[in-house]
């Protein structure tokens, strides 16, 4: 299934590159054989009946990545056939941002949402950054604009602005430094200020406030996935099995985090499961993550209160394949904001070295 340059193609692609021919996507004995090892890895979470619909895409994408010198970066919320079978780099927002700054590939395909692709572009201005579906947004990123940040600065003169990476480049450009849920406390405390504006996630800011003496001013943004969890729901799981361990993402409401045994970023949650090897665990976060961790934690049973992120779920194998074939959708950041936004991201990345 080698892809060749299509003859007579008039389609204009970024970087003067050519579209490639759509590979044959049948589940042949050859495809089954070549993807058998990958299927073995994900067989705990992908039923055998579903694999024939994924395998031809997995094989085609892995071949096209070599042909294009491309990498796929996949967030922990990608589905397992993406996360375990076609991704080159996986991780939380901070890990993806760090790896994006190191890659020597020509093309980055972002398995994640738009703000993540923008971050990759900021750190790789000369590379082609693609997102398989431009509509993959985020309720936190949509909750605030650059003008809102300027108003906050005017209302709290002198307070530095720390912006969660789940924001547009326009908002990052108005900020002093970025943070993710895995380094928010460290970033806030690095500034040496008595008061810090930490935006736009109200719940993340409240969680950070429980761990620092710095006064935190925040915004009313919420993650539409994590805000739906309730303490009653978590208590019901504990009543049903008092041995269940509950770990939550800091984008959850404070009363939900109060019911949890641990709170941390998606990579922090994965690390916790690997270190503690609980008999049964409930990950209070987007539900694909349980599948991805289950692949590597065979002795743990995962309870799945399934809250899906509709934006993350827009990224599928067929759309990743289209990205590589037709080099779409290209993510760009206007020059007028790119430099200031990049500085805010780089300050965060450098802080952790
Ligand atoms: P982290 O992976 O950085 O914890 O972020 C979670 C998230 O919601 C990303 O959209
Ligand atoms: Fe945004 Fe929440 Fe989806 Fe993450 S899970 S992309 S924070 S809406």
- How many individual β-strands? 12
What is the SS-derived class?
A: alpha/beta
Give Rg in angstroms: 21 Å
Low-pLDDT stretches are: 1-9
Shape: flat
Number of helices: 16
Order of helices and strands: HHHEHEHEHEHEHEHEHEHEHEHEHEHH
Measured between the Cα atoms of the first and last residue, the distance is 42 Å
Give the spatial strand order of the biggest sheet: 2-1-3-4
In percent terms, what proportion of residues is strand?
5-15%
Share of helical residues: 40-55%
The residue-averaged pLDDT reads 94
The hetero molecules present are:
1,3-dihydroxyacetonephosphate, iron/sulfur cluster
For the largest beta-sheet, the strand count, sense and barrel status come to: 4 strands, parallel
List keywords for this structure.
353 residues, alpha/beta, binds 1,3-dihydroxyacetonephosphate, binds iron/sulfur cluster
Description:
This protein is α/β, with parallel strands linked by helices. It contains 16 helices and twelve strands. It has helices spanning 29-34, 36-42, 51-68, 80-83, 93-100, 114-123, 146-155, 169-173, 184-190, 202-209, 231-240, 254-257, 266-276, 288-296, 317-326, 335-351, and strands spanning 70-75, 89-91, 107-111, 128-130, 161-164, 177-179, 195-199, 215-217, 245-248, 262-263, 280-284, 301-303. The strands form three sheets. The chain has a four-stranded parallel β-sheet with strand order 2-1-3-4, sandwiched between helices. A four-stranded parallel β-sheet has the order 6-5-7-8, sandwiched between helices. α6 links the parallel β3 and β4 (128-130). The model is unreliable at 1-9 (pLDDT under 50). The site of iron/sulfur cluster (SF4) has 13 residues, from loops. 1,3-dihydroxyacetonephosphate is lined by residues 76, 92-94, 166, 180-182, 223, 251, 265-266.
